[in-house]
Structures are given as C-alpha cells and as structure tokens.
Design a protein that fits this description.
2 domains, elongated, five-stranded mixed sheet, Dihydrodipicolinate Reductase, domain 2, 269 residues
C-alpha cells in the first residue's frame, strides 16, 4: 500500500517469526510483502495465512530470500547466524534496512556484518525491548561509577528451547558493563564456572545462564561489594514486546544511511 514501509520476515514459522508477522500485520505504518522459510520446510509454497491457521492472505511462503528481500524496504531477521549473514549480503545489494535479532554469532561473523553495513543500514540488538535497553544504559553508568572493588555478575534465564548461552542480551549487558569500566568484555568475561576455579579475579564479569520452562527472558546485573549489593533487573512476560521493538527499528531504519546501528540509536538514548 502507498506510504507504508514494505517489510519482510525471515523464518516466519518460528516462535519469533510468527510474532513478527503479527506485529507487521497489525501496524498501520507497515505492509507485509513477503516471508521466507528454509528450503524443504513444510510451509514453503503455501499461503502464509493458511499456515498460521487462518484465512488465505495472498502471501506465499518462499524459500528464496533474494526474491523476497528485493521487494522489501526493511527485513526482520530472527533466524540463525549462517542464515542472517546470507540475508545481510542480500539486504546490502537491495539497500534494504536489516533488523537483526539473531544471537549466537561467532567472532568472524561481525566482520561480514560490518561489510554489509557499508551498503545498507543494519540495526542489530541482543534485545529489542525498551526496558532492557534502558537497563543497558544504567549498567554502563553504574559500572563507570563503581570501581573494581564491586564484582559484576550477570544472571539470565530463558525457556528450555533456547539454544545459545549466554543470551545475546546478557552479552549486551556485559559489553555495557565492560565499557563503563573502560575495558573489553572479551578480556574480562567468565562465561561459566565449574570445579575448583580459584578465587574470583578482580575486575572480571561473571555470566550465569539458566534454562527452563517457558520463561520469556529475565536478566539481572549484580554489583557486589563488601557489605552491600546493587541489583538491576528486567523481566519480560510477553514476547510480543520484542516483535514490536523490532518493527519500530525497521520503520526507523527505512531511509537511514548505511551503517551499523543499535536499539539505543532507534530510541534516541
């Protein structure tokens, strides 16, 4: 429809994919122009509305991201690292804004995303909720205000089906804490502890990942000093908040110059 941002959703059958589809369809500012699934998936070639248990809506599930992205102003992508890298290259060719909620990237993936961002805007976030992004800002500020006499521990919990750990949000919070301390997360992160580990190293940032049930997402940043403890916590109870945040990022990213952006940029924080 004229005046609306044309948006496509990668991995439409997934838990987040279905919510992204719903968020776009409910928006007065966006139009869903295409969706994809992996080759061989049962939804490929079928009408999306019928796949979702409703009436046909004229959108056929495709296994060709090139065809779908070519008709999009923005792409919502909560898939897998390998698929997202492919999508980033295609978005760069189409000059489409690429909103990435995928987690679990390997170090080598970030250079490929940076290369794609030279040609199209990429908005990537470990979490698209307003509350978590505010928590990120607060974490950076508190870490900067307190010296290394305060140990930093990050605890996250998600549903039993999550396949990567620590979560992308936990890493985002860890990066914020490390920035506040003037260091790099990769140099000070303790991702897990087991056995006789010895004393905790001063200035390190600990990570703990819990998995169980249907937990949408809980994150806590603990600053533990001698005789006192500061705790910053966020709890998500509705997965749609992530979909709405990603849609907000897509609408914001349309017409932006190429580059790498975060949800903090979208929110103007």
């Amino acid at each position: 429809m004229p005046g609306k941002t044309a948006i496509s959703v990668m991995g439409a059958s997934g838990r987040m994919g279905q919510m992204l589809v719903r968020a776009v369809q409910e928006s007065e500012f966006a139009e869903l122009v295409g969706v994809t699934e992996a080759p061989g998936h049962a939804w490929v070639g079928r009408d999306l509305g019928e796949c979702l248990g409703g009436q046909a809506n004229g959108i056929t599930v495709s296994d060709d991201p090139l065809e779908v992205i070519a008709h999009s102003h923005a792409v919502l992508d909560f898939t897998t690292p390998a698929a997202t890298i492919t999508h980033a290259e295609l978005c760069a060719q189409a000059r489409a804004a690429h909103v990435i909620g995928t987690t679990g990237f390997a170090p080598e993936h970030y250079a490929l995303l940076a290369a794609a961002a030279r040609h199209a805007p990429i908005i990537r976030a470990g979490n698209f909720s307003l509350g978590v992004n505010l928590l990120t800002v607060l974490t950076r500020q508190v870490a900067a205000a307190l010296d290394a006499d305060f140990d930093i521990e990050i605890v996250e919990m998600h549903h039993r089906h999550k396949v990567d750990a620590p979560s992308g949000t936990a890493l985002m919070l860890g990066e914020a804490a490390a920035e506040g301390r003037g260091t790099r997360l990769g140099e000070v992160m303790d991702p897990a502890r087991e056995g006789v580990t010895g004393e905790r190293q001063r200035g390190h940032i600990g990570m703990a990942a819990l998995r169980g049930g249907d937990v949408v997402g809980e994150h806590e940043v603990i600053f533990a000093g001698m005789g006192e403890r500061i705790s910053l916590k966020h709890m998500a109870t509705d997965r749609m908040l992530f979909a709405r945040g990603a849609l907000k990022a897509a609408l914001w990213g349309h017409h932006r110059k190429p580059g790498e952006y975060s949800m903090l940029d979208v929110l103007g924080i």
